[in-house]
Amino acid sequence: MARHHRRQGGPELDVRAAYAAHGPELYRFALRQLGDGGAAQDVVQEVFLRAWRSAGAYDPQLASLRTWLFAIARNVVVDEARRFAVRPWQRTLTEVTETDAPAVVAIDEALVDAWVVEEALRRIGEEHRAAIVQTHLRGRPHAEVAAEFGIPVGTLRSRVFYGLKALRLAMEEMGVEP
Fold it and tell me: Does residue 74 contact residue 44 with C-beta atoms inside 8 Å?
C-alpha cells in the first residue's frame, strides 16, 4: 500500500503521520464503543483504509483531519455494531453488557457529533451561525434573540431556516450525514 495519496491539485495525505497522530485515540474511541479490542483494531484499520482510498475527497478547508477521521470512525463503528447485532456469535473478545453499551456509545457519539457540528458551524455565515447557536443550541426564545440582535422575529426565523440548510450542506461536504 502506498504511503501517500495525492489529491488532484491538493496536498498529500500522509497516512503514516495521520495514524501516528490519531490512531491511538481512534482505537480508544472504537474500544469504548464496541468493548472489543480486536474489533477496535479492525475499526482503526478500516478508518485508515477508507481515508487512504478517499484522500481525494478530504478538504482541510472543510474539516480538520481529526474531525474527518472521527467521522469515518463513527460510520465504521456503526457498521460494526450493526454487524454484531446481526451476527452476535462473531463477537469473540470482551463483551459489553447491553445495559452498559448504550450509555457509553451515547457519550462518545455525542462527543464526536459535537466536534462535527462545531466544525460545520465554522463553515457557515456569522449571522446564520449566531441565529442557530442562540435559538437551537442555547434554546432561547426567538423574540428575545431577535430583540437582542435588533431585527424582526421573521428575519431571525429566516436566518435560522437558511442557516440550518447551510449547516446541513456543510456537514454533507464534510462526509457526515446530518
Answer: no
Cα distances (angstroms) measured from residue 57 to each of 3, 5, 52, 83, 132: 17, 11, 10, 26, 28
Name beta bridge partners: 13. Answer: 5
- Tell me the helices (H) and strands (E) count for the chain, helix number first: 7, 2
Cα 138 to chain centroid, rounded: 21
Q: Which pLDDT tens digit goes with each residue over 4-21?
A: 444 444 446 788 888 889
- Give the separation between CA 82 and CA 86, rounded to whole angstroms: 6
Q: Work out the average pLDDT over 131-154.
A: 93
Report the DSSP beta bridge partners of residue 163: none
- How far apart (Å, rounded) are the C-alpha atoms in residues 148 and 144? 6
Q: Is 88 exposed, middle or buried (0-12, 13-18, 19+ CB in 10 A)?
A: exposed
| pTM for this predicted structure | 0.48
Place of cell 474500544: 31
Instruction: Give tens-digit pLDDT for 54-105.
Output: 888 787 877 788 888 988 888 888 888 777 665 554 444 344 444 444 444 4
Domains of the chain: 1-115 (1.10.1740.10), 123-178 (1.10.10.10)
